[in-house]
Amino acid sequence: MSAGGPVIAGAALPADATLAERLLHAVNRAAVGVSMVALVAAAVVLTYSVASRYLFKASTDWQDETAVFLLVGVTFLCAPWVQQQRGHIGIEAIVAILPPRVNHARRIVVDFLCLLFCGFFAWKSWKLLHEAWVDGQTTSSTWAAPLWIPYGLMTLGMALLTLQIALQLAPHRGRLVR
Questions:
Q1: Cα-atom radius of gyration of the chain, to the nearest Å?
Q2: Tally of domains in the chain
Q3: Which neighbouring-strand residues pair with 138?
Q4: Where in the sequence is the domain holding 119, given as residue range(s)?
Q5: What is the pLDDT of residue 173?
Q6: What is the pLDDT of residue 44?
Q7: What is 46-67 written as a DSSP string?
Q8: Residues contacting residue 73 through CB under 8 Å, at least 6 positions apart
Q9: pLDDT tens for each residue of 28-59
Q10: Closest to 28 in 3D by CA, of 110, 68, 83
């Protein structure tokens, strides 16, 4: 770790990046930093759970939900950063055989379809979050953790992912082929 926080590898922003791109880049880096801590916390919680059950025969009813909530946050909050790096899994075999202009068009179409899907997912996530908050929904365990926590993490991650894709598709960008 550096003095300014965790060192996160990845592509640097282009010199002509917009203010929105710079702000989202900073948010994405912060989300990845928080996610690193959450991943370690999930590992600690699960390790504690196993050790307490094995060594002390003490069961815990909160550890599974805590770990799941942390992992949901890690998954959804890191997705915009991965998209920013164009690091999601993709089939690149066709890229090598397509002419650059056709490949450029293919990428725009794929990004647009992803934008539609992620926008829909974000909208549905907002609805789930709202219902969980208004209705006071909780998990069915004895801990009864509030469901707005994982839904909120999912909603934030999908909203940021949708914004990231939208920025990558913005008409002023001539840099879609990288």
A1: 20
A2: 1
A3: 146
A4: 19-169
A5: 57
A6: 97
A7: HHHHHHHHHHH----SSHHHHH
A8: 34, 35, 38, 150, 153, 157
A9: 999 999 999 999 999 999 999 999 988 988 87
A10: 83
